[in-house]
Amino acid sequence: MSDVQEATNQLLDVNLHENQRSIQVTESGLRSESEHLQVTIGATVPTGFEQTAADEVREKLGSPCKISKDRGKIYFDISVESLAQVHCLRSVDNLFVVVQEFKDYQFKETKEEVLKDFEDLAGKLPWSDPLKIWKINTCFKKKKTKHKKINQNSSKQKIESGQGDKTDERDVKKEFTNNVLDSQILDYYENAAIKEEISTLVGDDLTSCKDETEESSKEETDPEVLKFRVTCNRAGEKHCFSSNEAARDFGGAVQDYFKWKADMTNFDVEVLLNIHDNEIVVGIALTEESLHRRNITHFGPTTLRSTLAYGMLRLCAPQPTDIIVDPMCGTGAISIEGATEWSNCYHIAGDNNPLAVNRAANNISSLLTKSQVKEGKLSWGLPIDTIQWDICNLPLRTGSVDIIVTDMPFGKRMGSKKRNWNLYPACLREMSRVCRPGTGQAVLLTQDKKCFIKALSGMGHLWRKVHTVWVNIGGLHAAVYLLKRTPQTFVHPSEQDGERSPW
Ligand SMILES: C[S@@+](CC[C@H](N)C(=O)[O-])C[C@H]1O[C@@H](n2cnc3c(N)ncnc32)[C@H](O)[C@@H]1O
């Protein structure tokens, strides 16, 4: 039996006694039902890399994917046995199980009518299977680091004063009005990157001051009542309501239906109400912390998400024994992702800033320690080295590198646009020297597209642009260029003058 199968079987054995309306089934009943459970999983992915994520899902889970109109999302069907594997995907940020999808939702004319429909919807949705998946998933889910809390919400106070079960509709609405700050901000949802940063920020700001001990004793006295929140992500011009209002009214109805407690920061269940123009998807979150937070412990000023690093590496389909270089590595995010996922290749991470090289080395070291602790044995290491160098003069032999994957200074937080006018042509020239003619590839991320295209236009004999992926990096519109090295031999300027290159 595989590790994943074993883990899944154990999970089906977890105690499933829940005082929940829609999953009042016995443990054995749930076990046998769950064995054949088929559900639709939604995943947020770095915008622009939807196809890459779909390819990974098809390759690793054998499931075809639907790429959403709403950028940065994919959907695929799985059976419960594959749930552990879903958490091992490298291209996805957050996961949720779909409760129901409305492809062409007909919004009523007035705000009051629309909000009333949201209230009515809560009681009509097919919650049962998604909640079983949510329950099984709790064992797979990576826990978010808990923060100190600054205030308690009224739901907890009510429970503590014995009023918890008698919450009336007015209280429920008030509760949601007081706590929808995050969903309001999530109106910016179009950009998955922004959405996630804001969610995290709100979580940090609103966490209550109760400490862990107090929290666990509370859970002991009141174990069966689930805490939940609703997050509404809305995108579209034609809505007569805000995400804030939708979350409040839908959330109030969910609370009435399940008799759960609303808790915006310390919740067990996060219900998602995703609205994109006329499309609505109701889901239940399966990740507490984005899956991109996996490799990096020592952050730099412009650390790249591991999921994006994976997408960039995958664009050039690395083959065993390939030599893959990130010549401007920063924290080493790209090379580290490469070394963990393509361990049959050799990865080199370099940077001209000694602080960056240090961070990359520390990140590799933390990852090795983590895997040693997990596996309980000495690790043989990762196929990766770090080095301090200047990209304009790399200590590498001509034609020795198969793939270059790098995240270039945008000229905003890192470097300057003015400096890029010199740096970019020099980078491209040196990369064309070290890259293998005819088969070499480069995947380069930049927001300074004008400067990049200008630099590339002077090197058409050495590089051919085959594909561009448009991505959103923290709200900045950036491009990932896939270049192929032409068969033309590199001729160093000094050789043109009759001198020989030392490499
Ligand atoms: C956008 S950052 C890369 C961030 C990295 N992907 C990460 O996840 O941390 C660009 C990097 O290029 C490096 N850099 C700038 N000029 C360089 C040069 N001439 N040679 C090598 N590295 C350079 C900077 O020090 C910086 O770390």
Provide the list of bound ligands, each named once. S-adenosylmethionine
Portion in helices: 25-40%
> What general form does the structure show?
elongated
Structural class: alpha/beta
Q: Using only CA atoms, what is the Rg?
A: 25 Å
Please report the total strand number as a whole number. 15
Low-confidence stretches: 1-27, 147-220
Strand order of the largest sheet: 2-3-1-4-8-7-5-6
N-to-C terminal Cα separation, in Å?
51 Å
The main pleated sheet reads as: 8 strands, mixed
Per DSSP, the total helix count is 18
Averaging pLDDT over every residue, what do you get?
81
Structure, explained:
It is built from 18 helices and 15 strands. The chain has 503 residues and is α/β, with parallel strands linked by helices. It is elongated and about 80 Å long. Helix 16 (417-434) links the parallel strand 12 (403-407) and strand 13. The strands form 2 sheets. An 8-stranded mixed β-sheet has the order 2-3-1-4-8-7-5-6. Strands 11-10-9-12-13-15-14 form a 7-stranded mixed β-sheet, sandwiched between helices. It has helices at 3-12, 27-35, 50-61, 83-86, 111-122, 128-137, 154-160, 169-178, 181-185, 192-206, 212-221, 243-258, 306-315, 333-341, 354-375, 417-434, 449-457, 493-496; strands at 38-44, 65-67, 73-79, 94-102, 227-235, 261-262, 269-276, 279-285, 323-326, 346-351, 384-388, 403-407, 441-446, 463-473, 476-485. The protein is 38% helix and 20% strand.
